[in-house]
Amino acid sequence: MKMRKNVRVPAGRVGGFTLLETAMALGIIAFALVSVFALLPVGLGSIKSSSEQRAAASALRSLQARILAAPVVSTNGSHVQSVPEIVGGEWQIGGAQGGPWRIGLNGGGHMETVSGLQSMVAIITVDPPPSRTEAGRANIRIAWPVAAQWTASGWTNAQGFTESSFHFLPRWE
């Protein structure tokens, strides 16, 4: 194989890229950057949504645990269960449905009384146990943002929601 020693460059021409090649490369880079930046809001929205879902699921578990742990208190012949953190959150064994109670929750999923710190809302209803040995039923519905409203046909003004229904037995002490 022969090697050339002298390679001549035509007069007036220096090695490098032409203006057309440079413009095309910049166009391709610009297109790629615009595509990546267009996906950022989608990714950030997904992160926010998953954070809200996580907080709602945590709040759901916490409220469910409070209802399951509610002790029965006997006074004057009636048996009442209550969750003190829920304002008015008590129900009588064999009594009418308790609630619905509306509770504000903060971003961490904890009950919050200061309206400016609330980011979610929970609606709780309880069908009390009909007797000392039978199970009651509770419904917990959580939606965000706090402006969401629960109606008979479902949530309005909600960006997302989660809910749970469960049975529970009276906890006699």
Task: Itemize the secondary structure elements and their pairings.
Elements: H1 19-68, E1 72-75, E2 78-82, E3 90-92, E4 98-105, E5 120-127, E6 136-144, E7 149-151, E8 154-156, E9 160-168
Number of strands: 9
Order of helices and strands: HEEEEEEEEE
Percent in helix: 25-40%
Computed over alpha carbons, the radius of gyration is 31 Å
Strand order of the largest sheet: 4-5-6-9
Q: What is the overall number of helices?
A: 1
What's the overall geometry? rod-shaped
What is the end-to-end distance?
98 Å
Key words describing this protein structure:
29% helix, four-stranded antiparallel sheet, single chain, three-stranded antiparallel sheet, alpha+beta, 9 strands, 173 residues
Plain-language structure description:
With 173 residues, the protein is of the alpha+beta class. It has one domain. Helices cover 29% and strands 30% of the residues. The protein has 1 helix and 9 strands, in the order αβββββββββ. It has a 4-stranded antiparallel β-sheet with strand order 4-5-6-9, with helices on one face. A 3-stranded antiparallel β-sheet has the order 1-2-3, with no helix packed on it. β1 and β2 form a beta hairpin. It is rod-shaped.
Question: In brief, what are we looking at here?
Answer:
The protein is of the alpha+beta class and 173 residues long. The chain has 1 helix and 9 strands.
